[in-house]
Amino acid sequence: MVLYRGIEKTVSNIEEGFEEKKNKIGDLFIKSGFMVPDDLLEDLFQFYIDRGDLQDLNDDSLRNFAYHLVDVIDLFSMDYDLAKDSLELDEWVTLRNLFSTYSDDIDDDLLTYVMQLAIEKGAFR
After folding, report:
1. pTM for the model
2. Which of 84, 101, 87, 92 is nearest to 37 (CA)?
3. 20 and which of 10, 16, 65, 92 could share a cystine (Cβ 3.0–4.6 Å)?
4. pLDDT tens-digit profile of 14-23?
5. Measured between alpha carbons, how far is 35 from 80 in angstroms, rounded to an integer?
């Protein structure tokens, strides 16, 4: 709930520009993903920025982007909604690579959970 309120508060703030809002969403993402290393979260956030998930520089696209990041956080809390399954193959591949890179700093249960889902989603082809 706190993450959702933070997203809405950030996106609705009319006094801040788009870049400030984007950076605050990144900060919320990193704080909410406390179960994995900050460096992994920073790399993953940059992946989404580089991927072009925010091509439309407006509040609606920022809100959609932020709520997609909530799905990623759900994965890190081992509560990913398989019925919704909002992550695409390139995201699973990136997650696989990042989790491999940072594996020494990730809880074994979480590492197994994410890697098992990545296998199921075809990230190891």
Report:
1. 0.91
2. 101
3. 16
4. 899 999 999 9
5. 14
